[in-house]
Amino acid sequence: MQTKRMTFSGKWLPYALLAPQVIITLIFFIWPSFQALRQSVYRQGDAFGIRPDTFVWFDNFKALFADPLYLNSLKVTFVFSVGTTLLSMSVALLFAVMVNRMIRSRDSYTTFLVWPYAIAPAIAGVLWWFIFNPSIGIMPYMLDMVGYDWNHRRDGNDAMIMVIIASAWRQISYNFLFFLAGLQSIPHSLIEAAAIDGASRFKRFWTIVFPLLSPITFFLLVINIVYAMFDTFGVIHATTEGGPAQATNILVYKVYRDGFVNLNFGSSAAQSVVLMGIVIVLTVIQFRYIERRVNY
Amino acid sequence: MVENNRWGNFFAHVVLILGVAIIVFPVYVAIIASTHPPGTFVRGVMPLWPGTHAWENYTTAITEGRSRAGTPPIGGMLWNSFIMAMAITIGKLSISILSAFAIVYFRFPFRILFFWIIFLTLMLPVEVRIVPTFQVVADFGMLNSFAGLSIPLIASATATFLFRQFFMTVPEELMEAARVDGAGPMKFFKDILLPLSVTNIAALFVIMFIYGWNQYLWPLLITTDPEYYTIVMGIQRMVTGGDSEPLWHLVMATVVLAALPPVLVILFMQRLFVKGLTETEK
Amino acid sequence: MATITMDNLCKVYTGGVQAVTGVNLDIADGEMIVLVGPSGCGKSTLLRMVAGLETITDGTLKIGERVVNALEPAERDIAMVFQNYALYPHMTVFNNLAYGLKNRGFKKAEIDRRVREAAQMLEIGQFLDRKPRQLSGGQRQRVAMGRALVREPAAFLFDEPLSNLDAKLRVQMRVEIRQLQRRLGTTSLYVTHDQLEAMTMADRLVVLNGGVIEQVGTPMDLYSHPETTFVAGFIGSPAMNMLPADFLRAKVAAEELAHLPAKADLIGIRPEDFSTAPPGEGDLVLSGQLLLLEPAGAESHLHMRFEGFDKNVVVRLSHVPAAEEGQDLTFSVRRAALHPFDLESGQRVA
Asked: Is residue C202 within 8 Å of residue C209, measured between CB atoms?
C-alpha cells in the first residue's frame, strides 16, 4: 500500500482524520456483522431471560440447508440473478454497439438511455407492476390478444419474469455506459487492420471487438450479480413480496422476512452469514480482476 | 470499408429508437396515469393519452396523500428524502476525503489495518446484517431520526478508494512545494488538495445523492413514525396499504415526484455522473 | 544570502539503500554549485536533503551558521524550483507567487510589491491573472522561478528545472537563470544530468556517482584535469576515448610514453586532441581506418578503428575533412593531452 514518497509528520493527526470513518465502520458494520456471526451459532432464548441463549454449534445452518423453503429461495435467487444479469447486459451491449456507430446523435441517445439509473429499484418495480397489472395493465392486454393469460398474482413464472424485467430495466443504463466506454477505448486502428485482413463487419465484432471487451464484460458480470442479489430488495418488497407461493422469494427478501416479520433470529443470522460469504467471494473476485486489469 | 454504410446506420437508428421507446415507456405510462381521475383505473386498460386531472392529482398527493390509510402527505416525505440524501452524501464525502488524505499523505502505525477496516464495508452491505444493525441503531436510540437514517450509511469504501486513487495522481512536487512555501498538512489539504478535488467531489456527489435518495431497506427498517417516512419507501406503503386496488392516479403522481429529483440530477450533470460512475467502480 | 556547509552527509533509505554517502562540501556565499551525474547517482537526493524534503540519516547540514538538520523545509529559508514546476494548478500566477509569502504572514502591500517586482524581472507581468495551464512551458518555468524569487531566500535549489523544455528554450533559459543568479548573488545549488548545462552554468561543479562525490572543481578544472575515469568519461561530449596503455605502447615509440608513471595502464585522449596537422616534437602519431564520418557543419566527428584496439575511437575536428569512409587517416596527439589513469582504481596517476 503506497503513500507519497514523502509524508507529513504528525502523531495524532492521521488518527483524528480517520476516526469518523473508522468509528462508524466499527459500530455500524463490523460490530453488527460480528453479532450476526455470533447469533448464527446460538438458539435465541425467550424475551424474559427465563431461557437463556444456547450455543448450538452449526444447528442453525443445518436446519437452514434442510429447509425446503430456503433451498427454494436459493434456486429462485439463482434464476433471478442470472436472468436479470443476462437481460440487462445483452440489451445494454446491443445499445452500446449501436450508439457507438453514431457520431452526431451519440450524446442524445446516451442521455435518453442513462436516466433510468436514477430510479430506485422499488420504483422500477412499481412501474412495471403497473404495466403488468392483470386487470388494467397494457402488457396483459396485449398478451391476451395473442392468447396468453398473464397473471403474476397466481403464476410464479409470470411473477419472476416481471421482477426480472423491472430489475434489469434500471440496470441497462449502467451496463450501457460501461460497454460504451469500453467500445470507445478500442483503438480504431485495430478495426481497420482487421478490415484490411478481410474480416467482415460481423466477424470483426466477434473476433476483435468482443474479445477486447471481455475484461469489462467480466467486471459487469460480477457487478450485476451483486446488484441482482442485494440491491433488488425494493423490487420484490414493493411488488410481489416474495410470492406467489415463494416464487420470487429471493435470499435478501427472505432474510428480512425471517428476521423482522417472523422474528426467527437464529435462522435469520445464519442466512446473513451465508450472504456475507457470497458477498465476500464476489468482492474478492472483483478485486482480483481489478488487480489484473491494472497490468492490462 | 470500415466506415458505416447507410443501411446499417438506418437499422441502428431503428433499433435505438425502439430501444429508447421501451426504456422510456414505463415512465411515460406513469406520467399519463398521474393525469387521470381515479375512475379510469377501475376497468378496461390503462390510458395511454394524457388526462385532465394532473393538477388535482398532484396537489392531492403533495398535501394529503392517503392520509386515511396511514401514509402522510408526500410533501413531507420528499423533504425527508432530501434531508436524508444530503446528509448521506455530505457525510460520505467528508469522512472519505479525510480518510483518504490520512492514508495517502501520512505514514503511521496500523495504517494498513485501518485501510482494511474501511475495505470491509464493501463486503458487508446492510442487506446481509439487517437484524443486528437494527439492534445497534435501536440501542443508540436512533430509530425514527435523521441521524439514524443517515449516519449508519455514511461509511464508504468506494469514495475513500476514489479519493485515494486521485490523491496518488496528484504530483508529489505539489506537496513538496507547499511545504517549502510553509504550509502544514491541514493548510495543504485546505488550500491545495481540496480545490484540486472539486471535480471528483462533484462527480461523487451526483452518485452519492442518487444512492442516498434511493435508499429503501434502511428507512423501511428504522422508521415507524410516518413523520420520518421517505418518499421511496412511502410508495410501498401507498401500494400495499389497504386491501383494495392501489389508487393508481395518486401512486403514479407520487412515483413521478419521487423519481424526478435524481433523474434531474443525472440529466443536468450527465458528464459528472458518468465520470463518477465509471471511476468509483474502477 | 548564506553559505551552505555539508559535513559528512549520508542518506540511507528504509530498506537499506545507501543513496548518499559521506558528502563534504562547502558552498560559498553567492556561489552557483551544479550537482551533476547520471540518473540514480544521488544528486537529487542530496538536493532534497538540503531542502528538507528528505531526512538526513547522518552528518550535519548548515545553512549560514544554523544547523538545519531537524528543520522543516519552510524554516530553512530556501526556495526550490522543481523539475515539473509544481505550480498550483487552481491558483493564478499571482497567487502561485504569493502563496509562500501569505503563509509567512507578509503584509498585503509587501506581497504585492515583491510579486510585481519578480514578475517584471522574469517578464511574466502580463500573465499574473492566468492559471498555469494557460501558459506555455517556458512561461511556466518562469513562474516557477518567480515563486522562488519572491521569497528572497538564503539559497535557491534547482532540481533539473530545464529538463521539461525543448532544446532551444533550454539554452535561452540557461542563460537567463545564470544572469539572474549573478545579479541577485544568491547562493544556489543546481541539479542536472546534462553535462553541457552543468559546465556552462556552474561556478563549481560537483560530479556525483553512486552517492559519492567523484570530484569538485571549476568546469575547466574538471575538463582539463579529471581526477577519475568516471569524471573523464562524464564531462565532455563526445566522451573522452579510453585507450589501454599497452595498445599505445605497441603503436608508438617507447620514449614518447616514458614520461607516464608505470601504473598508468589506461590513457584518455579527448576527441578534439587529435590533430591532422603534421606532428611536432614529441607528439604521438596514430593512424587508422575511417569507419564513419559524421559531418555537423562547423565540426565533424570521425569514428576511427585502430588496429589492435577493438573499439571505435572518436575524433573531433573543427572542419569536415575531404576523406572517404574506409580510407586510412593519420593523426597526431600532443603529449600533454594524454590523461593517464590507473585502470583498477579508476584514479588519475599524473
From this structure: no
Residues spanned by the domain of A162? 55-291
Q: Tell me how far CA of residue B65 lies from CA of B15, B27, B62, in angstroms.
A: 40, 20, 6
Q: Which residue has the higher pLDDT, C325 or C35?
A: C35
Identify whether A114 is part of a domain: yes
Chain C residues interacting with chain B (CB cutoff of 8 angstroms): 51-53, 72-74, 78-80, 82-90, 99-100, 103-104, 147
Q: Do C103 and B179 touch (CB under 8 A)?
A: no
Asked if residue A13 is part of any domain, the answer here is no
B171 touches chain C (CB under 8 A): yes
Write down the domain spans for chain B.
6-67, 74-280
CB-based contact, B99 to chain A, within 8 Å? yes
Chain B residues closer than 8 Å to A260 by CB: 130-131, 134, 221
Q: What does the pLDDT look like over A127-152, one tens digit per residue?
A: 999 999 888 888 888 898 888 888 88
At a CB cut-off of 8 Å and minimum separation 6, what does A135 contact? B43, B245
A105 domain residue, yes or no: yes
pLDDT at C320 over 90: no
Question: What's the CA gap between B119 and A283, in Å, rounded?
Answer: 10
Closest among A14, A61, A11 to A36, alpha carbons compared = A61
- Which fold does the domain B74-280 belong to in CATH? MetI-like fold (1.10.3720)
Nearest-by-Cβ selection for B195 from C84, C90, C104: C90
Cell numbers for C199: 559546465
Question: What is the Cα–Cα distance from B129 to B136, expressed in whole angstroms?
Answer: 11
- Residues of chain B positioned with their CB less than 8 A from the CB of C52: 179-180
Chain A contact set for B165 (CB, 8 A): none
Residue A170's domain is classified under what CATH number?
Answer: 1.10.3720.10
Nearest residue in chain B measured CA to CA from C156: B180
Q: Which of C107, C202, C101 is closest to C152 using CA atoms? A: C101
DSSP bridge partners of C34:
C190, C205
With an 8 Å Cβ cutoff, is B16 touching chain C?
no
Collect all residues with Cβ–Cβ distance below 8 Å to C50 and sequence separation of at least 6. Answer: C4, C6, C61, C63, C76, C78, C155, C157, C189
Q: How many domains does chain A have?
A: 1
Give the residue on B whose Cα is nearest the Cα of C103.
B182
C-alpha grid cell for residue B12?
441502428
The more confidently predicted of residues C246 and A90 is A90
Q: Edge-to-edge strand order for the sheet containing C300-305?
A: C274-275, C328-333, C284-295, C300-305, C313-317
**Inter-chain CB proximity B179 and C89 less than 8 Å:** no
Of all residues in chain B, the percent with pLDDT exceeding 90 is 39
Domain assignment present for residue A244? The answer is yes
Q: Report chain C residues whose CB lies below 8 A from the CB of B194.
A: none
Contacts B179 to C, Cβ<8 Å:
52-53, 72-74
Interface confidence (ipTM) of the complex: 0.88
* Dihedral over Cα of C104, C107, C109, C113: its sign: negative
Question: In this model, does residue A295 exceed pLDDT 60?
Answer: no
Angle, CA of C239, C240 and C244, to the nearest 5°: 135
Contact C93, C129 (CB under 8 A): yes
Here the contacts of A90-95 (C-beta below 8 Å, separation 24 or greater) are A91/A168, A91/A172, A91/B19, A92/A171, A92/A172, A92/A173, A92/A174, A92/A175, A92/A176, A92/A179, A93/A175, A93/A179, A93/A217, A94/B15, A94/B19, A95/A172, A95/A176, A95/A179, A95/B15, A95/B16, A95/B19
pLDDT band at B33 (very low <50, low <70, confident <90, very high): confident
Chain B residues with CB-CB distance to A238 below 8 A: 216, 235-236, 239-240
Cα distances from C252 to residues C247, C256, C282, C333, in angstroms, run: 9, 7, 11, 11
User: Residue range C60-81: average pLDDT?
Assistant: 92
